[in-house]
Amino acid sequence: MTTIPPKIAAFLVKIEAFLISLDPKSFPIASKEDSMEELPVLRIAGEIKFVSADGWVAPKLSKRMDKFMLYMLIAGKKALKDGGVTEDVMDELDKAKCGVLIGSAMGGMKVFNDAIEALRISYKKMNPFCVPFATTNMGSAMLAMDLGWMGPNYSISTACATSNFCILNAANHIISGEADMMLCGGSDAAIIPIGLGGFVACRALSQRNNDPTKASRPWDINRDGFVMGEGAGVLLLEELEHAKRRGATIYAEFLGGSFNSDAYHLTEPHPDGVGAILCIEKALAQSGVAREDVNYINAHASSTAVGDIKEFQALLHCFGKNPKLRVNSTKSMTGHLLGAAGAVEAVAAIQAIRTGWVHPNINLENPDEGVDANVLVGPKKERLNVKAALSNSFGFGGHNSSIIFMPYK
């Protein structure tokens, strides 16, 4: 699509990730009792210590389902409440044109892991819901069942780019006329031994156990990997005229975006950054936004050695001539929420548009070689009149995605 799409209001955004905090308490990946080779001990993660499902999810169901589904349902329902989608409004909606497209990178890992442990005893000990509650699509399905929404309903899993892929596809359903309203985003809850252990094994996680609040440090020369987080981010996209007719409060306008593939490596970005550059340039072309109008970027920057630099180089290639450009990384404060990261960061971009404040980059004490610190937001929040905001998400497998929001006028 080369023309500017019909206007889409992005107005209901809700996250559960605000509950995340770095926890220095011990979380061993492997113990001396384990028969497998002992892995390094990891004591830090952006773990949600408590979330209440009261009034959002039935108690019996909340105890059975995996946490990634629980976070997704709560965040989705809070997004609807925040947007004024009351019972009266729900009764007036054409539910055949209301859909849910919320993905997950990892799915129900805890439910699946528990099933494996139960199977060691007997298949009779297995949770009969282990298969449906482990699949990535079931969160979207359960939310749609709860709401009675019969429009497009599925999930996308593209590792840490999941949320942006879901947001873009949700918007396309509105543009095509298939939907008036779409809940979209991502959710993940992989802070369990098998989830953490897998990322430790591929040397992706920070092991700054002695200084957990400084562990997530995008662009800093002393970064040693990302901090795994968990949570959910859900946006409600709505066709503009439909939103205006019901008197919705519109937070921002979703202009579009793009996704593509590096087609290069399992976990590393293309060394020339060509995939990210093409994705950003395509997003600008498809949304009709001039590069000089993009003055705020919420970067993917997860605190990895190679990824941070390659993205920064791509940003300078595309926007280096914009002297007013400001760039930050939400992950410096939340850790990396995997498939939920893009939606939470889209929320951060929209909040910057709404409030005129961009949040700080914390822990950026010694910028890596080739990083222009003048482009990056400092250790304190900054005032910014956002003209257009771009948010990047990149995932294992070479998945690239960029989405763009601007103030609604």
UniProtKB/TrEMBL annotation:
Gene3D superfamilies: 3.40.47.10
InterPro entries reported in the protein's UniProt record: 3-oxoacyl-ACP_synth-2, Beta-ketoacyl_synthase, Ketoacyl_synth_AS, Ketoacyl_synth_C, Ketoacyl_synth_N, PKS_Beta-ketoAc_synthase_dom, Thiolase-like
UniProt xrefs under Pfam families: ketoacyl-synt, Ketoacyl-synt_C
Record-given protein name: 3-oxoacyl-[acyl-carrier-protein] synthase
Entry annotation: catalytic residues: C160 (for beta-ketoacyl synthase activity)
Ketosynthase family 3 (KS3) domain: residues covered: 1-407
Stated family: Belongs to the thiolase-like superfamily. Beta-ketoacyl-ACP synthases family.
One GO BP annotation of this record: fatty acid biosynthetic process
Protein source organism: Gossypium raimondii
Any one of the GO CC terms: mitochondrion
SUPFAM superfamilies found in the cross-reference section: Thiolase-like
Species classification: Eukaryota, Viridiplantae, Streptophyta, Embryophyta, Tracheophyta
Keywords from the UniProt entry: Acyltransferase, Fatty acid biosynthesis, Fatty acid metabolism, Lipid biosynthesis, Lipid metabolism, Transferase
